[in-house]
Sequence to fold (400 residues):
Amino acid sequence: MTLPVLVGQILSLSGIAIAGLGIHRLTRLDVTLASLLAGVCAGLAIPALGLDVGVRAESIKDLVFFVMLPLLIFEAAWHIKPQLLRRWLMPILLFATVGVVVSAALTAAGLYVGIGHAQGFPWAAALLTGAILAATDPVAVVAKLKVLRAPEELTTVFEGESLFNDATAVVIFSLVLLWAQQEVGSASVAVYFSSAFFGGIAVGFAAGLLTSIAVLFIGSSASSMIILVFCAFGSFYLAEHSLHVSGVMSVMTAAIVTRICLREQQDSLLSGVGATWDWLGLLMNTLLFTLMGLVITLDMFMDQWLTMLVAIVAATLGRFAAVCGCTALTRLSTRAVPANWSLVLSWGGLRGAVAIALVLSLPVELPYWWTVQSAVFGVVLFTLLVQGPTVGRLIARMGI
Fold:
């Protein structure tokens, strides 16, 4: 992909995303849903007008992975409060490891059995879909929790579990994708997972320390923001492209380490950082949902409606089973998750930006890529239209 093509894609997507923000302002629809609607409208209008935004299936992966994903992960990790994260770390890690594996496996099994077409939708396709749908995005739920004045600990569990399970799900997705492309054998799966997972943590830890030193040495508020953005992109690129370990784990670790090391600088060198990450996160989310709107088609609903329904049922049941099982396991530890949280965590496990980013990065050479994309899009739409609008009432009814 040449630089002019990349710039053209970003400008085109940004213009459509801004139109989505206008739709949000006029209709009061959720920002993500408004961005999706803007993308759908643009996808219908652009061919009719004989225009071309330059977005191609083969070039989407680089745009999503190396531009959008690093900022999304860094922004999510930056906003988590270290002291609350430390308190709930063990339950969060349990949800993000055992929970992700259980959710991905049950979703994959449900899809494989429900679709029942081993040639057109093999186990590799089911596992890819399960890994993608294990990644959650609770942004809308967290906003509702704050409005309803729910316990800050529940918000932390939501945000922390989402952040860590995004990282785990991306590693599992990358591993299954390599296996599906026959680039890694079954015997080396554990070795690859360990090296990618822990290698990413090591790279991120070093990047976080160096970033903290650079911020303190330069000692400028404006410069601090530049350094942090460089850290987000640099830690991801170094890990993913140069060292071939998990870029998502690297970015997440770098953000957490930097936040902890610079915790005394929140009101001085980092006074405007939170607002900057807010608009960067909003931009990346709107761009991804706009991109989803551009690539979604009417044929997808006509040809893949049954796949979408099966995916919605499988993903919902898989999430409930994973959350309830992990909630029960936390009772064996010193920090147990209250039972009335499990239903909210299950229904509030919305699928959003990261799931879209992963499915848009699927190689089109895979014969089942469109089926996987349809399944994920169906679950994301269910999230936007059903789970998101009703989770607030569930939270209120549970009396949390």
Notes: The chain has one domain: 3-398.
